[in-house]
User: What shape does this take?
Amino acid sequence: MNEWREKKPQEWRRYVNNEVKVTAHEKQECQGWVFTVDPVSASVVLVNFQDTGRTCVTVVMGHAVEAVEILKEGGPEMEERLSSLFMPTGHHGLTK
Amino acid sequence: GLPELREEQQARSLLRQRYLRSLLAMRDAQVRFRMYERVHVEARFGASDIDVLNFQVSDLQTPIGVQKEALLRCPDMISYSLEL
Assistant: This one.
C-alpha cells in the first residue's frame, strides 16, 4: 500500500484545480491539471488543454502513483474551466 | 470530532462525484491503456462496473490482434488517457 492511497479525502481535495506532476510506476511522469482524485481508488484525473482546442484526459491509477508534486495553483478561472469540461450544464450535483 | 468527519464526507462526495462524471464522459471514447509490463492497448470504452475494478471495452487492439469485446482489469493498468 503506497503513501498516496493512505491520504484523507480532505488532503486529496487540496490537489484539485492545481497543476501537478505525477510520478507513477517505473518513474513514468505525467503532468496536468487535477480534475479530481477518486476517493475509492486514489486515481488522479489529469487534464491538459491543447493548442488545437482539444482536451487530453489522463488518469493515473492510485495503486501506481509514487509521488504527486504541485507545480502551480489553478485559481477560479481554472476551476471554472475544469468544471465546465465534465459538467457543461453548470449543475454541481448528480440530480437536478 | 464531528466537524472533521463532516468535512471528510463532503470532500469524499465531491471527489467521487467528479470521478464518476469523468467515467460518464468516456462513453464511446477511444481510450489508450498503459498496462504493466510495458504493454499498451487501445479500445473503445463502454462501461465500468460499480466498484471500478473492470472496464468493458470494444475493439481492443492488442499486439496480437483485435478483440471484439473485452474486460480490462483496472489493477493491471498504470494509466489510461483519451481526448475529449
